[in-house]
Amino acid sequence: MADNLTLIVGAGPTGMTAAIELKRAGLDVRIIDKSDHMALHSQALVVQARTLEQLQRYGVAAQAVERGRTVNQAKFFSDGKLLVDFTLDRIASRYPYALFLPQSETEAILNSKMESLGVRTERQVELTSLTQNGGIHATLRHRDGNAEEVNPRWLIGCDGAHSVVRTLTGTAFEGGGGGLSFFLGDLELEGPDAPGDELSIHVRHGDVVFMARLTDRIVRLIVALHATQGESEHPDLTIEDFQRAVDQVGVRVKILASEWMTPFRVNDRQAKHYRIGDIFLAGDASHIHSPVGGQGMNTGMQDVANLCWKIAAVARGANDALLNSYEEERGEVGKALLKFTERGLKLATVSNPLLERVRDTLAPIIAGLHPVQQRAIGFISETAIEYRSSSVVKDCGCDGELRAGDRLPDLARNGRGEAATLLQDWTVARHLALVVNPGSAELDRVKVSLPGAEVISLNTRDLDEEGKRLLGKQSKLIILRPDGYVGFCGAIDREGEWLDYARQDALTR
């Protein structure tokens, strides 16, 4: 068994992100994929703010934003009438928008970063058998038909909704029901309802049309028609299929040409377990759902950001039980995501006339409430995800609103230039120990005690009002995990407590 080798099965955005995370942490990685190429089309389209924060740590966020199209407004129409119109510019992030970026572009950016770290996808290589008995035993079939036996220390299944890893481990994929049929296309169109720089959703009598502009010429359409649910998928979609759909929903556009179109069917499902011994499931292999909210790819990338620093900690000597928190934390995120997308889709696809009227009457009122808007924006951008109830975070109580388990925003630093932020230089795959309002002796003590962390001193008077509100005025220690979430928050003088936490993550070594 290779001491610290992780085998990643599946080289989509989730798999490549896992490879980047592990390699940045100094671990050995192999990544395989049975396909002979990366994504050729747009497929997963939306990169959310939380994922852009993740890409910032890899040094590629600016490149993604440059290649994509920023969107900060969403509109919801029912039978041609605008019901809800809200903006995303209130996201508490360095990236206060959604980024429309074709999956082919996202994969190209991730692949370039991964290869710069010395990892290259082994293509047309397929996992054919997998067992665990005193270690992982896997068989790989190469493109020439030859078989290879490998024994990695860990294996991560990032191989999609039809995951071979999930199947070979016998892990149940729970949920489902009948599922919903969609068809999707990147189309050239014109007309008064063609979207500008906003995301628009049109509904009518249970039918849904989602539209978002990819480029000045091309618009992404996703269609779900109430009358066609239960029918077989359209194997050969045409422009006329999309035109009939938008006409049926009352969207005033004419479709001129197509770059790409495909049918797909989605059942809401979640793996019963995300951890099976030293084998882990991530992304669509662990949860699938409707495209409502543009969450799928983003959730997968954040799954492995959560998992991989824990694998690295165990490789450094942390207790293996730390890896149990991957399922504990991300399993709850998966449950919330499935619930959100299911409810959102049910709301959009209401076909009962009475319920439609109730929805159309109440939606503008409810959506106009500030707390509702903030909750929706936080969920969609994934900046509201927190792990406060996790067994591996420790909050010892102190002033300020930030708590252990919370994501730490990239706060503005006053007096250091207009664009200076707290986390702009945090690109190493290490914990970050923020010694807040310290004396010199306290700062030195933390540096000596936590050799496994990057230690910086921070005075809250140098932060903006958001920073002061979150971090408070008292002297404290905040230990930020490599995935951007607070692992420990407490007073510096309670050394025994933060040292206990640090030993859990192998920061004292």
Explain what you see.
With 509 residues, the protein is α/β, with parallel strands linked by helices. Helix content is 31%, strand content 28%. It has 13 helices and 25 strands. The protein has helices at 13-24, 49-58, 61-67, 103-116, 164-168, 239-249, 296-316, 324-348, 353-367, 370-381, 440-449, 465-471, 495-504, and strands at residues 5-9, 28-33, 46-47, 69-71, 73-78, 81-87, 98-100, 122-123, 126-132, 136-141, 147-150, 154-157, 173-190, 199-204, 207-213, 218-224, 254-271, 275-276, 279-281, 287-288, 394-395, 431-436, 453-458, 476-480, 486-490. The protein has an eight-stranded mixed sheet. Strands 8-2-1-12-19-18 form a six-stranded mixed sheet. Strand 24 (476-480) and strand 25 (486-490) form a beta hairpin. Helix 1 (13-24) runs parallel beside helix 4, helix 1 (13-24) packs parallel to helix 7 and helix 7 (296-316) runs antiparallel to helix 8. The protein is globular and about 70 Å long.
Q: Can you tag this structure with a few keywords?
A:
509 residues; alpha/beta; eight-stranded mixed β-sheet; six-stranded mixed β-sheet; 13 helices
What is the topology?
Layout: E1 5-9, H1 13-24, E2 28-33, E3 46-47, H2 49-58, H3 61-67, E4 69-71, E5 73-78, E6 81-87, E7 98-100, H4 103-116, E8 122-123, E9 126-132, E10 136-141, E11 147-150, E12 154-157, H5 164-168, E13 173-190, E14 199-204, E15 207-213, E16 218-224, H6 239-249, E17 254-271, E18 275-276, E19 279-281, E20 287-288, H7 296-316, H8 324-348, H9 353-367, H10 370-381, E21 394-395, E22 431-436, H11 440-449, E23 453-458, H12 465-471, E24 476-480, E25 486-490, H13 495-504
